[in-house]
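Consider a concrete sample entry:
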Amino acid sequence: MATAAPATEGTGYAVVFYDGECPLCQASMKIVKRLDWLGVLRFQNCCETDNLPHAPEPLDPQLLIEEMHLVTPQRDSVYRGFAAFRWMAWRLPLLTAFAPLLYLPGVPALGQRVYLWVARNRFRLVPCQNGVCTVPPA
């Protein structure tokens, strides 16, 4: 999956950082990209840290690889993991109807726990050897 050029302030789109070396992450971002009918997202491999967008807090490369991050279009907020998914759900037309459910009591805590479990175990959930995944050709 090709990554977008790094974003600058006030671009009108959010930047989603994902592990571009992980097949599970790549597949997930392909799905999200297909759902982004309004073009509100750009995707950047978290290993490509040369041109990070402005953010209200430093974007730590180690944390970027551990958990999906989203920097908002106004560059005033950073969301991680399940919170990033919730932010996207409001802006992806097919998910908007379900977005309010992501705020029900207990759902954010459970959602983050599930997200972190998948993120931490992603190399066991896809065919990888010694923690290194081979990226299938495009």
